[in-house]
Every structure is written in structure tokens, then in C-alpha cells.
Design brief:
The protein is an alpha/beta fold. The chain has five helices and twelve strands. 29% of the residues lie in helices and 32% in strands.
Amino acid sequence: METLSVVIITLNEEANLPECLARVAWADEIVVLDSGSTDRTEAIAREFGARVHTRAWDGYTGQRNAAHDLATKDWILSLDADERISPELAEEIKEMLKNPDPGMLGHRLPYKVFYRGRWLKHGGFFPERHVRLFRRGHGSYGDRAVHEALQVDGPVGDLNHFVEHHSWRDVSDVIRRLDHYSTLSAKEYH
């Protein structure tokens, strides 16, 4: 059986992190790369047995790639603190680790995006797939400032069960994130 590292980048994620970590507690290794949280993020991560590292923020791509470099197992599952793998996806990943396709270097995961506890089935939020599971050493994020995508240097397959993405807490959070992401995108295009 092959092994799995879960890597999560964080900044003040005490509200989201416990549920995210509870869903991956079975992994061989959990690595949290924090950007200087001032809440209980680091303490919560340690309570779940994660290896916690701190690194100054230098953008989503830089943080994600640095987190991947800290992983030591065969496969890496890259998550955000507001993402939760479903129990069915956990079982599907465990089965893949028992008998991996030797030619497959990554997997796209289907996402269900939630807002205030409700699944967003329309408006471009479903179906949504992202490569987030890959063989260590064979994937990295490119240079996009926001909505970065993992690039894998070989064949990528699809898993069937979902990651639940609890993106926003309320309307003000939606507006704040839209402002932040649009600013990053504008700088990137400029």
C-alpha cells in the first residue's frame, strides 16, 4: 500500500480547520503550512497531529508549492482549510492507494461548492473538478496569482466522490473575497 500526505495552507483558519482535519485524520501524514495566524490555527493543527510549519505569505502558488516540498509520502492531497473530503472520497482514495495505476500521476477530484450550508448546483459551480491528488514530485502550481491550477507532468485520471468546499461564511465574506481576488487578477493581467 502506498502512503498519503495531506497538505493544507492556512492563515487564521480556526473555524474551518477542525472539520477539514477530522476528515483526513486517517492519512499517513498531515502537513500544515501557516502564514502567521493570530488565532488558534496552529494549536488546532497540532491537536490533530499535523506537522506545522510557518512561512511568510508570498502568494497562493508559492505557499502551495512550499507545502508540497514539506510532504514526505508517496502521494499528496492538497486541500484548503475550507475543504472537506467526503467519507466516500476518503474510501476511494484509500482504495487507490492499495492498488495505484503505475502510470497515473494525478487525479482530478469533483467538487461540491456550498454557501451557508447549501450546495450550489447551478451558476457555474457544478460540476467543478480540480487536480488536487498527485504523486509526490510530479506536480506543481504555475504562476497565476489567484485560482491557480496544479500541473501534473503525466497522466491524470478522475475520481468519482466529492470534496465539499465551504467557500464563504456570509455575504460580506463573498464581497471581501471578490474584491481581493479581482485585485490579484487585475495585477496579474497588468
